[in-house]
Amino acid sequence: MDGGKKGSVEVDVPPAKNTGGGSNxxxxxxxxxxxxxxxxxxxxDTNRVAFSxxxxxACLLVSLLILIRHPYEVFGTNIVWAxxxxxxxxxxxxxxxxxxxxxxALGSLFAGIFAVMFMQIAASSGSILAPYIIAFSIFLVxxxxxxxxxxxxxxxxxxxxxxxxxxxxxxxxxxxxRVGDPMRTSVVRLYSVAMGGxxxxxxxxxxxxxxxxxxxxxxxxxxxxxxxxxxxxxVKKYLNDDGTxxxxxxxxVMDDFDDEPAYRKCRATLTSSSTLDSxxxxxxxxxxxxxxxxxxxxxxxxxxxGAVLRHCSYEVMAMHGCLHSEIQAPYSLRxxxxxxxLDTATRAAELLRSLSEDIYNMKRRPHPTLLNHVHxxxxxxxxxxxxxxxxxxxxxxxxxxxxxxxxxxDDDDDGHRIGVVxxxxxxxxxxxxxxxHRRLRSWPSVEAAELEDGAIDLMQRRAFVxxxxxxxxxxxxxxxxxxxxxxxxxxxxxxxxGRLAKFKHEIVT
Length: 509
Description:
Blueprint: H1 31-44, H2 46-67, H3 69-75, H4 80-89, H5 94-123, H6 126-148, H7 158-176, H8 182-206, H9 212-240, H10 261-270, H11 273-283, H12 299-323, H13 331-336, H14 338-361, E1 363-364, H15 368-387, H16 397-403, H17 412-427, H18 429-439, H19 446-449, E2 450-451, E3 454-455, H20 458-500, E4 504-505
Parallel strand pairs: 1-4
Antiparallel strand pairs: 2-3
């Protein structure tokens, strides 16, 4: 309002539109978009649709036992436990279903035995002591089962102890309230659980089975490729970053980088421990199937290989951190070592993909050639850093060599690198160096740079910043060399997996 008082704020509130339903619906939550998201989720993995349909089909089969008169007359309301068993026991993979079924069957069996035993003791103790015995038995079973499921070696059977507790309480409560015969209740309920378990296992195994072993196999192969891709993407971005589009450091401190697939790929590998452990534990329960046709397949070795691979990916994540560090090496200096860094990363990624291919094809192939090439590339990179370490301690040395000293022409590689640095310094002096100085204006802090008698000389400060920034290149290359060193352990782990899993041995000529 023009005639409003000074300091007042005018707020325009748009009139509410009458949608007929009493609420506004945003475009991003429209039914069409929701349906499209559901279709995309289903198309990403068709096993999700198959699993859902199998669960519905198993529930349908068990519900027929309730709807048909004769089974209901035999089992009564206890037939509902067959349907409950299907809902609880049916898991995504066959191995997880077997594991859950074993826990449920064993838990129901022990619960029935304990219930009959304590009910007989209570019945023979008289009407006065019976309630106290029943109450004490519930306390005792609850305390023991809760303690045992916390025991480290019994953690995989945690669900079984839960089944013992609630099944025992239900049986004892029904028996004490004189609702039927406790013995008959236990037996009928055990039969109902067995029928539900049988239907669950048959449907899950015979209709589009989803094997945990296959999932584990594919998951490990995918992580090999993710680490290889993230390594190459990280190195290429580091070498191609001239600093012209780099934001301020504080603006890049975040948990996710939407424009960097390498970061997301590497993070997926680092967080894969629980997934691999869960799949390996489920695969142990599966019978021989598909390409895994022998008993006691070494599923635990897949977890071991994944652990070694994660140790390699730690270095890639640290290299990714160098992309967003506040101290950045000059682009001209990166160009001087570009060929060696890129060659080392390319050969390391090639070795990772070769190991992934071996696991996929279930073949054992020695990799002395590829491994030697990777080590040779890393040694050349390390040698180049050692021979030209002066470039990492003074950014002005290359310019001094270009202007005056010409008595060291016997080292062609040295002169080539100095020339590359000198040319790039001149080409990017007005852009890269200026932007880097602007980014580094807050490091080291003014407070840290002050002395008792005043501030450090401006030229000395700039020289210190340039020298420290150049040393960040040595950090990046040392992480790459460490990644190569860890590949030896990865090759050994894959070879051990091939031996224990009886992969087909193939000699590379």
